[in-house]
């Protein structure tokens, strides 16, 4: 199975459409900031435009909101399209996938859950996952990794790091930190920040044999 990994669209329809047109894939995982409540006066219209584009692409789509996506509005829209994995488990090919949206910033953005909230929710859900192959999609990256560096500082979550160290996820898809695009490994978990779609970045995951991630750009 080939999965398109994306994050931080921030309402950029042009880039999202170009990525979907360029690549062939079976499914999509989106790690949040689908739209941007501080950028678009009518957030819900822009959010639904992004989801329409994703829905018109190829295959199964699962997503969490980001810190710029107000929790209630974004989750309702995702639920309506059967895309939601925020605080939820879903089958995803051979995998079970679980997610949690939102992220911490110093700017008072619309959806900023604590690290404790993220960890406790995913821990409970992890105990209910039936597949041996597990994916987590969490907007907030773990601390002290290659995926949480902003202006030279590690700004990720200690609690998300603890979660990944303690639980047996095969893959973590994250985002939030635009400048920390890349891959890393923590415990036995492959971690990916595909980079922001609004800057033309994304990744492809091939899970046919071993997990293989290719970082790509427009």
Q: What does this protein structure show overall?
A:
- Helix 2 (43-55) runs parallel beside helix 3 (71-80) and helix 4 runs parallel beside helix 5 (158-166).
- The protein has 5 helices and 13 strands.
- It has a single domain (2-217), classed as Purple Acid Phosphatase, chain A, domain 2.
- It is globular, with a radius of gyration of 15 Å.
- With 218 residues, it is an alpha/beta fold.
- The strands form 3 sheets. The protein has a 6-stranded mixed sheet with strand order 4-5-6-9-11-10, covered by helices on one side. The chain has a 5-stranded mixed sheet with strand order 3-2-1-12-13, with no helix packed on it. It has a two-stranded antiparallel ribbon with strand order 7-8.
- It has helices at 13-22, 43-55, 71-80, 115-126, 158-166; strands at 2-6, 27-30, 60-63, 89-92, 95-100, 134-138, 149-150, 153-154, 171-173, 182-186, 189-193, 201-206, 212-217.
């Amino acid at each position: 199975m080939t999965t398109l990994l994306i994050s931080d669209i921030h309402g950029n329809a042009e880039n999202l459409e170009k990525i979907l047109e360029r690549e062939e894939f079976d499914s999509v995982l989106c790690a949040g900031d689908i739209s941007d409540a501080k950028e678009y006066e009518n957030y819900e219209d822009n959010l639904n435009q992004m989801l329409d584009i994703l829905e018109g692409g190829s295959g199964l789509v699962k997503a969490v909101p980001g810190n710029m996506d107000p929790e209630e509005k974004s989750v309702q829209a995702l639920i309506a399209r059967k895309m939601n994995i925020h605080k939820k488990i879903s089958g995803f090919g051979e995998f079970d996938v679980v997610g949690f949206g939102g992220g911490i910033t110093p700017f008072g953005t619309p959806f900023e859950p604590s690290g404790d909230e993220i960890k406790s929710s995913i821990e409970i859900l992890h105990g209910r996952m039936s597949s041996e192959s597990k994916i987590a999609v969490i907007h907030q990256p773990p601390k002290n990794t290659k995926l949480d560096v902003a202006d030279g500082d590690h700004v990720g979550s200690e609690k998300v790091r603890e979660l990944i160290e303690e639980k047996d996820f095969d893959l973590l898809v994250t985002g939030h930190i635009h400048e920390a695009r890349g891959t890393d490994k923590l415990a036995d978990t492959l971690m990916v920040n595909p980079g922001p779609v609004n800057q033309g970045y994304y990744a492809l995951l091939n899970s046919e044999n071993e997990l293989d991630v290719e970082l790509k750009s427009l």
